[in-house]
Automatic annotation (TrEMBL):
ENTH domain sequence ranges: 1-56
Domain of life: Eukaryota
Gene3D superfamilies, alphabetized: 1.25.40.90
SUPFAM superfamilies: ENTH/VHS domain
Record-linked Pfam families: ENTH
Descriptive protein name: ENTH domain-containing protein
Amino acid sequence: GPPGKLLQDLSQLSYSHENYNELIGMLWKRCFGQDKKYWRRTYKVSFIQQSLVLYQ
């Protein structure tokens, strides 16, 4: 998964409404806007989402 520092930074950014919308939009695009052969991206997105829930 992504490094801990990156996850922490993403968590901090998610507190701002503007940054939150941009972050979730990018995660959504990475997860559902890609070809299904890039399954690792989907895995990383789910890992990041889990981290956001835990750090919030």
